[in-house]
Specification:
The structure is a homodimer. The first copy, chain A, has about 400 residues and is an alpha/beta fold. Chain A contains 12 helices and 14 strands. A 7-stranded parallel sheet of chain A has the order 3-2-1-4-5-8-12, sandwiched between helices. In chain A, strands 9-11-13 form a 3-stranded mixed sheet. The first copy, chain A, has a two-stranded antiparallel ribbon with strand order 6-7. In chain A, helix 1 crosses helix 9. At the A-B interface, helix 6, strand 6, strand 7 and helix 7 of A face helix 6, strand 6, strand 7 and helix 7 of B.
Chain lengths: ~400, ~400
């Protein structure tokens, strides 16, 4: 299979590329280093700095004998992307080429505009590159569980049958997100669904929860092949932040009440999910939507798990509640379905204390590089007067 | 009230501007003549050619003594729009600045891209110009009934309470449109709803059906103040096409079975609706959605009405069914609510035979300018194999 990975420099893009190459697929990674450059400009570099793609490809080849080709360019440039797709003729495109940060998208107009235009244009260009050159290609698009927000009813997998006044209709599950970044993913879904219906595209849209983990079969070959690890207030995730805080001996910062529930998954399971999706493409004209997470935790539960893992490692860790910089419900119903990927054969790697302790050991090796000034939230969502409105 | 009208050269933009000016509001119209230029480039000019804005403003001033200011520029240029909003300080912005053609958006990648980027960027820029300079400004955004598509359940006004497994949640009514153009309006709605929630914008989103008519209180002052009138396959609407076909003595072309139902309204009612919306702004942080049409007709019913009006005028008109170039259901349930604007005080001008006969008289005055080669559909929606899929 020829697999084109857009956003191949990212936390998930690079491990995905190695995994496909290791199974003898022909892999090409594409990136313009936008996230990497923004993080550097904003003094929010990762704890573990990954070499650039050409170097990582060389390191991976020396260790595994597998070749990954690299195209440096911008997926918002339609000519670049169209030419690449025409030449590479992918069977599968994995589209990670989006700015991934909710806080970044909420800094101000310039950051909002960059997130909006980058994410929407890249998706639009991928759609048309496929329609023009490889119409049977399977597009695997990374959405986010954040598209659904926190509705007061069960979250189904992408679709919902609505009964209304004695009649019924199946719809895309209504989406209502908590940041502009997450909203760009809603717009992506609307756009994909239109082109699936109108032109018979075949698309898998994966509604992914926050991913954690540094270990994959291929990343473990050499520390220079590790996924990047951001822990700052803009590009970091809550699991990374807690692990760094535990390693640095400072309190775990919980935003608000900490009862916000999200669906998490291990990076090994992201790779499993992408591989399973690629192996079972949907029909032409089908938009298959799968919810991609393995476990639901509240932020408080997550903090307790990190505390417990730290205890195993001999570290005593406290917890601190901060005013919530985000617009989100801190107490809400949450029951999300995730059976689709299990039915495809996904075998979850759960967030055990051993897994967290192993991540913590890795972070401790980089303890001297931790800059605690990067951690506290500095981006506050738009409307600051009064409490966040109930999104219902 | 200071009213900024984006897309002021359009079929609705210009009559809206005159109506507000005539009620002594301070009005500024903005346009970059994109639709006008595209129509000319594609040899799809209007039957009735409107002077450019500077000339129309002079004609209107001479007749009414009211001044309308003009800003020629592109709303996708954030600096231009931001500067304009900062200087004009509008209380109300009416946002018509979108490419309005479903067929145009379905021609190919270049036309799809222009529609996508023009419409999304203009909406994004309007949002941020308001947030930065006039946060209390009321944004009146033109959506379309086409956002809803043709679901098998009643179409409510913007929102729906979904009961699911014993719980319930109010959502944006799920949208599923039949063209890329209509899909850009869905994306607009998603984006507006996010910024309303996050930053407290005040927005009225009007889900408008196809508009017909050439007569408004101000347009009737002088034929050079008439709204433009496109009848071709790309920029024309079904009512205009039928009237021109009746005037030219050629059959009315019905796409497919002709049982497609849509909600129509007279241009006088568009102006009433905009004025009523402007007079009753929603609260900060409220997205008010109103369905803007007065009557439901099938395409066959519309053809019969035009036939009857033609008969009154002494013309015999036949009907011809064409293979449907669009992706749409030709037989479907349709029950759309439109009580919101009636409750605000809108008094419908219905599509009587007299109204159609009057339009037909106007068209007959331009009979010698009709180019029948412009009428037959030349844009066919993406997937042509087999019948259109059931969008359910």
């Amino acid at each position: 299979m020829r697999v084109l990975i857009l956003g191949g420099d990212g936390y998930l893009g690079w491990p995905t590329a190695m995994a496909f190459a290791n199974r003898n697929h022909e892999v090409c990674v594409v990136d313009n280093y936008l996230r990497r450059n923004l993080a550097r400009q904003m003094d929010r570099g990762p704890l573990i700095d990954a070499p650039k793609l050409d170097d990582r490809v060389d390191i991976f080849k020396a260790l595994s004998s597998h070749t990954i080709s690299v195209a440096i360019g911008d997926c918002t440039d339609s000519t670049f992307l169209s030419d690449l797709v025409r030449r590479f003729e992918p069977d599968t495109i994995v589209h990670y080429a989006e700015l991934p940060s909710a806080p970044y998208s909420m800094i101000g107009p310039a950051e909002a505009r960059l997130t909006f235009e980058n994410n929407l244009k890249s998706t639009f260009n991928v759609i048309w590159a496929i329609l023009e050159h490889v119409p049977a290609c399977h597009l695997i698009k990374l959405g986010t569980m954040g598209e659904y927000g926190t509705p007061n009813i069960d979250i189904e997998e992408g679709w919902i049958d609505v009964a209304h006044k004695g009649r019924s209709q199946r719809f895309l599950y209504p989406r209502e997100a908590g940041s502009l970044y997450h909203t760009t993913k809603i717009l992506d879904t609307d756009l994909l669904w239109f082109y699936v219906r109108a032109y018979g595209l075949r698309v898998t849209d994966l509604m992914q929860g926050p991913v954690y983990g540094l270990s994959t079969a291929e990343a473990d070959l050499d520390s220079r092949l590790s996924p990047n690890f951001h822990y700052d207030d803009v590009f970091g995730t809550v699991v990374n932040r807690f692990l760094v805080q535990a390693a640095a001996g400072i309190p775990l910062t919980v935003y608000g009440a900490g009862n916000q529930i999200r669906g998490f998954l291990n990076i090994k399971d992201t790779i499993q999910c992408i591989e399973l999706a690629a192996a079972t493409p949907p029909a032409a004209g089908e938009l298959r939507i799968l919810n991609q997470f393995t476990e639901l935790f509240s932020v408080n539960q997550l903090a307790a798990k990190v505390q417990q893992a730290a205890r195993l490692t001999g570290l005593a860790v406290t917890m601190q509640h901060l005013p919530n910089p985000r617009l989100e419900l801190e107490q809400h119903y949450y029951n999300a379905k995730n059976t689709g990927l299990i039915e495809l054969g996904m075998e979850p790697n759960l967030m055990t204390e051993a897994v967290l302790a192993e991540m913590l050991q890795t972070v401790l090796r980089y303890r001297n590089c931790i800059d605690t000034a990067k951690i506290m939230p500095r981006v506050r969502w738009g409307r600051r007067q009064g409490p966040p409105p109930d999104v219902a």
